[in-house]
What does this fold into?
Amino acid sequence: MQQLAERQGSFAAALLDSRLPIPNGLVGPDGEPSPKRFAVYRNNVVVGLTETLTDAFPAVYRIVGADFFRAMARAYVTVEPPRSPILLDYGAGFPDFISQFEPAATQPYLTDVARIERAWTEAYHAPEATPIDPGAFTVIAPDQLPAIQLALHPSLRIVRSQFPALTIWQMNVAGGIPAPVDLAAGGEDILVVRPLADVEVRSIPKGSLEFIQALTEGRSVLAALEAGLIANPRFDLSANLFDLLRAGGVVGYRLAPDTRQA
It folds into this structure.
């Protein structure tokens, strides 16, 4: 069994890394070694995975161009083979790989653009859930509101960038028109959510990311407010809560102990 596992590991490694020799004992229908057959198979696998990344990161592809993207994707495929037969899951580590890919260092925002695209993919394939009607909060007593915990939509993702990554992403998706961007203009915090059929990607104000992050951790609205205020002393709870509800990011709430649950 161990020998079989070693042979399978050797085969998989050689399949994704052209620098490795063809595994011993690999023969064609005639019983003779068949390096050409293996080379064709290897190329098809790498090309297939590269196309998967191209489909999942279209803005990154458009920004860097076909040749650069394929070289970067090939390098990623070599060090990060699929861990699931479901290719929709492939590419989760691609943004972090870009941050370490030296040739991409001249475009420091590229990692965050890739993170937005990964968040979009995850949101698109997340479980369905029905956003709560904002009017549901009218039944909550004012003194109970700070203690409630919000259940956020399972598709909801947040991304922080020290660059205008959302602006750059919007310029490089379908219908976008690339234009000069001042990288020193400041960063952007981004909310990604799919309340119904379409994924929505929008900018959120300073402090909102900390507020939402606290809510995802199961903290109360009051505790999340405190997190938002630390990040932004002018954080507006009413405005941020309304925007989160309007985006379809809330699917329920839990009151303080001994009270009912929505």
About this structure: The chain has two domains: 1-107, 128-262. Residues 53 and 91 are 6 Å apart (CA to CA).
